[in-house]
Design a protein that fits this description.
Helix content is 34%, strand content 28%. The protein has 9 helices and 14 strands. The protein is globular, with a radius of gyration of 22 Å. It comes from Psychroflexus salis.
Length: 321
């Protein structure tokens, strides 16, 4: 079992602590939090070992799980990597692209692996959809959340939209050509609502909308490609795949057939795959353990996290242009 420590015991940090404590692939050594009084309460309530000095915790683990505010990611990850520790970083990977690139260089130098917590990659609905998504040419995403003070220290792009940016980059095998965006600050100092249009070199266009002041929660993505439409509901963990094929000469009474202006007939049919059940956070942590053990590429490696951050920054830079 890999020995692991957690930096940060806030809302998400406590979830990580609980799951790592239950995991069969990790031995939870302890945690560090910048607030000693709060950390003592967490230790008393849950029994996890609290380290008042995270440098000491680093000495006793193989892997460090960084679930602290983004501003501290780089320094904490840098220290861990320089000590030869594998690092799991919550998204976004770092505060700047330059910092992320430095971590990639350091990880290669010290021969350690890193993974970024883009948890939607492990959503069972998205996992079921992956094999159905082939060269999408138009993508539309909506990620809406009810207001929560947590996360308002960063633009909604880094808080919410970056999930969809990463998912899109994982299925569109092309470089970003152009980014247009608009954002509105309603209750925070940074934009709470944002819309982005990302154009890729291969002609694919992605239209992304994110809001953290919605009256309801929504996390949906739709992928359009030749002869197919795939809808993924990340919140409800559901998927719908609608496909088209050449219509039979003698369609059945219940067959859905469309005919275009040239007289070409296509039959519409559903090809919905089974959606499994999982704990996405536990999966992302445990697949990282597998990558470390087998010396394979993490599913969301440091390069992936950096690409997502780079595009997110392009979106933010496009505001007001």
């Amino acid at each position: 079992m890999l020995k692991i420590g957690v930096l940060g015991a806030g809302h998400l940090g406590k979830i990580h602590l609980r799951l790592l404590n239950e995991s069969t692939k990790y031995q939870l050594i302890g945690f560090y939090d910048v607030n000693p009084e709060y950390a003592q309460k967490v230790q008393t309530e849950f029994g996890y070992s609290y380290y008042s000095d995270y440098q000491q915790l680093l000495e006793e683990v193989d892997v460090i799980d960084i679930v602290t505010p983004t501003l501290s990611h780089f320094e904490m990850a840098k220290k861990a990597i320089e000590k030869g520790k594998h690092v799991f970083l919550e998204k976004p990977i770092t505060n700047t692209v330059a910092e992320a690139n430095q971590l990639i260089t350091l990880a290669k130098k010290h021969k350690v692996l890193g993974q970024v917590g883009h948890v939607e990659r492990f959503n069972p609905a998205f996992r079921a959809a992956i094999s159905k998504i082939e060269n999408p040419m138009f993508i539309e995403t909506h990620r809406l959340a009810e207001f929560n003070p947590r996360g308002t220290d960063v633009p909604v792009v880094l808080d919410l939209m970056i999930h969809d940016i990463d998912a899109i980059l994982s299925v569109v095998k092309s470089e970003v050509k152009q980014v247009n965006a608009s954002g509105v600050s309603v209750i925070s100092d940074t934009p709470d609502i944002a819309n982005a249009r990302i154009q890729f070199e291969n002609g694919c266009v992605a239209n992304l909308t994110a809001s953290r002041i919605s009256l309801k929660n929504m996390r949906k993505s739709r992928f359009f490609q030749k002869d197919a439409y795939i809808s993924v509901d990340f919140l409800e963990k559901q998927i719908e795949v609608v496909k088209m094929k050449d219509a039979p000469e003698n369609p059945g009474d219940f067959d859905m057939v469309l005919q275009n202006a040239e007289g070409v007939k296509k039959q519409i049919y559903f090809d919905n795959p089974d959606v499994g059940s999982n704990n996405a956070i536990l999966d992302e942590l445990e697949t990282f353990a597998d990558a470390i053990e087998h010396k394979t590429r993490p599913i969301v490696n440091l390069e992936d996290g950096t690409k997502a951050l780079k595009v997110a920054m392009q979106v933010i830079d496009a505001f007001g242009k």
